[in-house]
Amino acid sequence: LSASLHFLLDVILVYCVYLLFGKGRVSLLLTLIITMGHLTFGYVIVISSNQVHPIFWTIPHCVLVLKLIEFPVVISYIRYKHFISSILFDYKTTPSSLLPGLQCLLLGILTAVIYSQFGKYFPLSGILSEEYQARSLLSKLLIMIITGKLALWHYMAVWTFAGATCVIMGISYNKSLFIPEYTDWTAVYNVNFWNNETSSTLQ
């Protein structure tokens, strides 16, 4: 199934639950079972077949499962499913956030390009291959580091895209109570790319 079909299936199932059972514990339990089961199915696909496309619907779907937001109107639910920033907050436009948002978006594009160009040479499945097992220890360590880094950047690209939309829509503004002219757009960052790549400790 494509990402759009996964979204549509989830919308229909959850809406039918609330339509039939209304708001209450039964609907909450059924919604949890359906959405968590759907998400688990997506993760099984990712792990078992080493496919790329499930990540584009499993990440926003994961957030929705964790929040278990109630949507009384089906259009509202569709909006939240297809606009990745809306799974975190309602949006509002702030023109001054455009440049920082585009910078974040370019970082996401760069990360995605690096993964798309080099990920095919270092797939996660390669670590389980006989060819990998036959390599020297130093070669194994080097390949493992590169493979792990590219796999991480796969997720980092998606997270950065989500962060960019949050910045552009103005919902990530981090206001300072002490400096009125203070401008920072990291209030809802999922990950700080540069700190993650340059840190020397796990703290």
Automatic annotation (TrEMBL):
Membrane topology: Multi-pass membrane protein
InterPro entries: LPLAT_7/PORCN-like (IPR049941), MBOAT_fam (IPR004299)
Enzyme class: transferase
Involved pathway(s): Lipid metabolism; phospholipid metabolism; Phospholipid metabolism
Example GO BP: lipid modification
KW Calcium (keyword) present: no
Membrane spanning stretches: 6-21, 28-49, 55-78, 98-118, 152-173
Keyword presence, Acyltransferase: yes
UniProt KW keywords: Acyltransferase, Endoplasmic reticulum, Lipid biosynthesis, Lipid metabolism, Membrane, Phospholipid biosynthesis, Phospholipid metabolism, Transferase, Transmembrane, Transmembrane helix
Identification of the protein by name: Lysophospholipid acyltransferase 5
